[in-house]
Write a structure and sequence with these properties.
This protein has about 270 residues and is mostly helical. It is about 70% helix and about 0% strand. It is elongated. About 25% of the residues are buried. The model has no long low-confidence stretch (mean pLDDT about 80).
């Protein structure tokens, strides 16, 4: 397990040689189903704000945009729901691509208000639109920090369109603020996901070790593998098994309570060599 996971591995675009990464992807993507309702609610609130452009945009165009948003959100919600059991299975590359596609489609739908609606609105409405997008990007970065690829795709598509729109409108300062916001979201999302994955890898390692110890102790208790023994805090042997005593050519009663080092040193214990 590397101390610092590569960024491509964190994003799901590569899988290091060590570790069951398909299983780890399952732990990553299982969080999607838990935040589906919250994500739909956030996009719905954003869509209601966009309808303030009714005075400047043809209602049919607004309705068509809303229908497209509903369609992409429905597609994403169905896919997220299918990953509800992914914490108990492995996630393949096709599912990762489908999630990325869902994020791209949602981002492209939100580009439409930036390109078509914002130019017809007032400066206040333009800033309101950017506030909505910032809310969606920040919310995605917080709620879906374990799945950074979708968050970054959505953020770069919508944020990039906003930067271009502000630059063309002469609002260079605002464009710079948007660019800085995108950079902070990207860095924060990747680092949060890296921390999540490293914690999961550590938990998996501890669970594996615990299973091995439990298996050995269970075999010891059942008597199928009686080579095991116990050593107390004073490093003295306790719970001596018959086979262990036979290997040392001693009686179990003579071994109990003896220092472990003394037993394996044999005659050398007395001489100190």
């Amino acid at each position: 397990m590397p101390k610092d996971l590569p960024t491509l591995a964190v994003l799901g675009l590569s899988s290091p040689a060590d570790g069951d990464w398909a299983r780890l992807r399952g732990l990553q993507y299982s969080s999607l189903a838990r935040v589906t309702v919250a994500r739909l609610l956030a996009h719905t609130i954003g869509a209601l704000v966009i309808h303030s452009y009714l005075h400047a945009v043809n209602p049919i165009v607004l309705f068509a945009w809303g229908a497209a948003l509903v369609a992409t959100l429905y597609y994403g919600a169905r896919f997220d729901h299918s990953l509800g059991d992914s914490d108990r299975r492995r996630v393949g590359r096709e599912e990762i691509r489908n999630h990325a596609l869902s994020s791209v489609l949602t981002g492209l739908v939100w580009v439409v208000p930036i390109v078509l609606f914002a130019p017809a609105g007032t400066p206040v409405e333009k800033m309101t639109l950017w506030t909505v997008l910032a809310m969606l990007m920040t919310g995605s970065a917080i709620a879906l920090s374990s799945v950074p690829l979708g968050t970054l795709l959505f953020s770069f598509i919508t944020g990039g369109a906003a930067i271009i729109s502000f630059v063309l409108g002469g609002s260079y300062e605002v464009a710079g603020i948007v660019a800085i916001s995108l950079a902070m979201i990207a860095i924060g999302t990747i680092e949060a996901s890296r921390t999540f994955l490293m914690a999961k890898v550590a938990q998996a390692g501890l669970a594996e070790k615990s299973e091995v110890v439990s298996l050995l102790l269970r075999e010891f208790e059942e008597g199928d593998a009686d080579w095991l023994w116990q050593i107390d805090t004073s490093r003295r042997v306790r719970s001596v098994s018959p086979r262990f005593a036979y290997a040392l050519r001693l009686d179990p009663e003579d071994i109990a309570g003896q220092p472990f080092i003394k037993l394996i040193a044999g005659e050398s214990w007395e001489t100190g060599h």
